[in-house]
Amino acid sequence: MRTVQFTAKFEFLDEIREFVGEIARAGGFNDRDVYNIQLATDEAASNIIEHAYEEVSDGLLEISCGVKGSSIMIVLVDHGESFDPSDVPAPDLKADLSERKIGGLGIFLMRKLMDEVQYEAEPGKNRNTLTMTKRRG
Amino acid sequence: MEITVQEFKRCDMITVKGRVDSATAPQLAQALEAANEGGKYKLVIDMEGLEYMSSAGFRAMLAAQRNCRKYNRGEVVLASVPDRIREALELAGFTELFKTFDDTLTAVGHF
């Protein structure tokens, strides 16, 4: 696993996508999977920046990523407000334009694009961990 | 991300190149709002040069689609949507909210 720390700002999303994309490519994931891994990681990081660090301008976002066997694992750690993605209801994809909710879409995509998404909040340690895995092919 | 706007007789075309994420989506939202503020509600978004779009971009397009379709005054349609982006739009259920065209010529011709 390689670990990189980012300041929790949207301007670093490019670097965050590059970081996981490079590891996924080197791990033998095809272009389509690499794109989807980057998208899921972007959605996860964007949520942390937007919600966990809503009141914080220089929060820390630590991302670890590695390929083991045929699986890639991405772990995002933040020290902001706990925000459990499973508390967010899935958007109603059949809703028409006027009823379509604008939120919750990122989390929905994250879950769809990855095989597993786990969230663990440790309020005592002020530490939230989001772990995502995806198998190759 | 790079945005250019071209005016046609019956619609405007907004060409988006590069990557749209939470950092750059506000610029796309602004361009779409600016078109609406200028009384333009028939819009083509040309995605040929688009490399990446997260849900932040989808949300900007959804807000624009709502505003454009109001009073039946127009709509936002998509042209030349790259495969990866089309797949994500499909997953998000967005392909039912936007007409998509293979190229900009047919998209502009739709209006």
> Given this structure, which CATH class of chain A is correct?
Alpha Beta
Q: What is the CATH topology classification name of chain A?
A: Heat Shock Protein 90
- Element-level helix/strand string of chain B: EEHEEHEHEH
N to C succession of SSEs of chain A: EHHEEHEE
CATH class of chain B: Alpha Beta
The class by helix and strand makeup of chain B works out as alpha/beta
Please give the largest β-sheet of chain B: 6 strands, mixed
The CA-CA distance between the termini of chain B, in Å, is: 27 Å
Gyration radius of chain A (Cα, Å) is: 15 Å
CATH superfamily of chain B: STAS domain
- Total helices of chain A: the number is 3
- Which two chains have the most extensive interface, and how many residues on each? A-B, 29 and 23 residues
- In percent, how helical is the residue content of chain A? 25-40%
CATH homologous superfamily identity of chain A: Histidine kinase-like ATPase, C-terminal domain
